[in-house]
Specification:
The protein is an alpha+beta fold and 85 residues long. 28% of the residues lie in helices and 27% in strands. This is DUF4160 domain-containing protein.
Amino acid sequence: MAEIFRSEGCVVKVFSNDHAPAHVHVTSAEQEIRIDISGPVAVVLESGKKRWQNADARFTKQALRLVNDRLAEIKTAWKSIHNGK
């Protein structure tokens, strides 16, 4: 796991052995959500399985804003962690 940055009580991180699509995990003391960063705008990552995210609407909005504000930096870090893939 690599921490990309911390802001507003949130930690944005990437797991080196994680699955596609490119995404980050945003956590706080009590909530967690996965954000898809593979497109031009970050969006909530929805899986085919039951949604496991523990995030209310306020946290989701905050996480999306934090990630979109630094999307280019996050994508660069994700590529570096995943060996340029």
